Amino acid sequence: MNALNEILSSVGRTGLVLVRALRYFPSVLCRSDARHDLLRQLYATGVRTLPVLTVVSFFTGMILALQVGLELRRFNQEIYLGAAVMLTLIREMAPFSCGICLAACVGSAIAAELGTMKVNDEIDALKVMGIPPARFLVAPRVLALVLMAPLLAFYCCILGTIGGGLVGNTQLGVDFSQYMTSAMSMAGEKDLFVGLLKALVFGLAIGVVSAKEGLDTSRGATGVGKATQRSVIVSFLSILVFGYMITRMCYR
Amino acid sequence: MDTIIEFKNVMKRFGEQTVLDGVTFAVERGEILAVVGPSGTGKSVTLKHIVGLLEPDAGEIVTVTPRIGYLFQSGALLAWLTVAENVALPLRETTDLSDAEIDRKVEAALASVELTGAAEKYPSEISGGMLKRAGLARAIVRDVDVVLYDEPTSGLDPVTSGKIHQLIVRLNRERGITSVLVTHDLPRALKIATRILLLKDGKAVVCLSPKEFVKSSEPEVKAFLAAMKGEVL
Ligand SMILES: Nc1ncnc2c1ncn2[C@@H]1O[C@H](COP(=O)(O)OP(=O)(O)OP(=O)(O)O)[C@@H](O)[C@H]1O
Ligand SMILES: [Mg+2]
After folding, report:
1. What is the mean predicted confidence (pLDDT) over B156-177?
2. What is the residue range of A20's domain?
3. b/e map of B97-134 (b: 16 or more CB within 10 Å)?
4. Which residues pair with B33 in a beta bridge?
5. Under a CB-based contact definition with an 8 Å cutoff, are residues A215 and A17 in contact?
């Protein structure tokens, strides 16, 4: 019973963080100081994620090409390798990998940063000065994630496709230009749209969850560590749940 | 007298633990009220109630003015802004003042805490005493009627503590800023405060002028004074 209560109140507080962040999105775009901060957050989001995401994307594409390509070769259907890799990436794997990287690289950093601020009374200090933390801290970070996630997922898709093509070429003897033609022929606008929407939702979920964990940090030496850990765990779970729900809604 | 903050029978509980158990006292305009008491009796909790960071479970808190500055124990500056930007923050975020006007006010605030030289430094680059003074500059950069000080001198050397106490007195005299000063430094509190409030076991035991406080026959006060003496010697 207690555990259920705990979960419900946690979900409620996350919802509250979400609503407050959304409410301040317009003010982040309108005020010039806030726009500066948004740029800073966009930059931080990109820089923190790109190195890891680059490696992850490349390998995701390579693994996909190898697994699928070996099966396709049994049926002499290697010409479809490009399409199979691209479709898997754009529909599922690119938003997913991108979400995982964002949760690990950016969400954890947000939770740690806000958690440290909470423990140092900086959040309280903002409140006393009449500056809502939701506007000043949460909204720019969440908005940066929402904007960057689709871009990064797109990047992941492109890089993964190239990685898959290289494996196809070197390991499976699929001509690279044939691979690319196949890749571009199958994926439609809907796939792109749903894939990017997924990434966007993941970005929003990671931002809100991490901000909530940061703001809920308890005092004591382990507080910030726990908040960071929880932000990553809850972000991962949200990515899986929302990923399934969006797939279920868009493809039937 | 003119009351600026009033606690009426305020109760606050965290789970099973009752921290404030019917606290009643008033802060008069223009005074320096020192709040003393053993560690963990709810002095910080009391300050947080004044600015609404915490809500009482029962009782009432009346504050006549919304213009209250708060000096947190750690200074609570934002790490990614310089000292000057930190001090400018409340003006930038909550007023429409021009940049020139903000710069002027920030400079004046920094000058009054003798931090002009450190304006462009980041919080990680300055000492603990400077952090507290920067926090104080940020608290007074807006026009405030009251400043709440949460242990402004704990962990500082006697010389820096003395400076901060002088600053509190100067702000009080020159700008008429009412001060609520939570402190463990009883000797200095006795020197600069107009009244001393002793909090113990969730109650406001007495609220007396320094002279009356040291002579009080209240057993709680005597016990506290004796304990403080023991600590000093
Ligand atoms: N947000 C909170 N949640 C739960 N308990 C709290 C909270 N804030 C304070 N407490 C508890 O309330 C009690 C009083 O805390 P407070 O910080 O006011 O003490 P204090 O008088 O300021 O002590 P010190 O002189 O050591 O700073 C402590 O036992 C503390 O554990
Ligand atoms: Mg305290």
Report:
1. 89
2. 2-250
3. eeeeebeebbbebbebbebeebbeebbeebeebbbbbb
4. B180, B195
5. yes
Q: How many helices (H) and strands (E) does chain A have?
A: 11, 0
Structural domain total, chain A: 1
Q: Distance from the CA of B140 to the center of ligand 2, in angstroms?
A: 21
Question: Measured between CB atoms, which of A117, A122, A128 is closest to B51?
Answer: A128
Q: How many CB atoms within 10 Å of residue A185?
A: 12
Which domain CATH number covers B3?
3.40.50.300
A157 CB burial (10 A radius; 0-12, 13-18, 19+): buried
Q: pLDDT, tens digit, for every residue of B2-39?
A: 899 999 999 999 988 999 999 999 999 999 999 999 88
Using alpha carbons, list the distances in angstroms from residue B162 to A160, B25, B137, B168, B188: 64, 27, 17, 10, 8
CA of B26 vs chain A CAs: smallest distance (Å): 21
Query: B148-159 as b/e, with b when 16 or more CB fall inside 10 Å?
Result: bbbbbbeebeee
Q: What is the pTM of this model?
A: 0.90
Q: For residues A70 and A175, is the Cβ–Cβ distance under 8 A?
A: no
Over residues A169-187, the pLDDT tens digits come to 998 888 899 999 998 888 8
Chain centroid offset of residue A244 CA: 15
Under DSSP, the state recorded for A105 is I
Q: Which residues contact A161 (CB under 8 A, 6 or more apart)?
A: A61, A82, A85, A86, A89, A180, A183
- Distance (Å, whole) CA A132 – CA A137: 8
Residue B11 lies in a domain: yes
Host domain of residue B9:
1-67+146-155+176-233
- Please tell me what DSSP assigns to residue B127: -
- CA A148-A40-A124 angle, 5° bins: 105
Query: Cα–Cα distance between A216 and B80 in angstroms, integer?
Result: 21
Q: Which residue has the tokens 């006010």?
A: B105
Ligand 2 center to A37 CA (angstroms): 33
Which residues share a beta bridge with B17? B14
Q: Is residue B8 part of a domain?
A: yes
Q: At what angle do helices A108-119 and A189-215 cross, to 10 degrees?
A: 20
Q: Is the ipTM of this complex over 0.85?
A: yes
Do the chains contact at B72 and A127, CB–CB below 8 Å?
no
What chain B residue is nearest to A133 in terms of C-alpha separation? B93
**Cα–Cα distance for residue pair B171/A223, rounded to 1 Å:** 37
Instruction: Select from B124, B129, B143 the least CA-distant residue to B86.
Output: B124
Whether residue B6 lies inside any domain: the answer is yes
Six token digits for residue B42: 């709810």
| Distance between CA atoms of residues B176 and B69, nearest Å | 13
Domain count, chain B: 1
Rounded distance between C-alpha atoms, residue A93 and residue B179, angstroms: 59
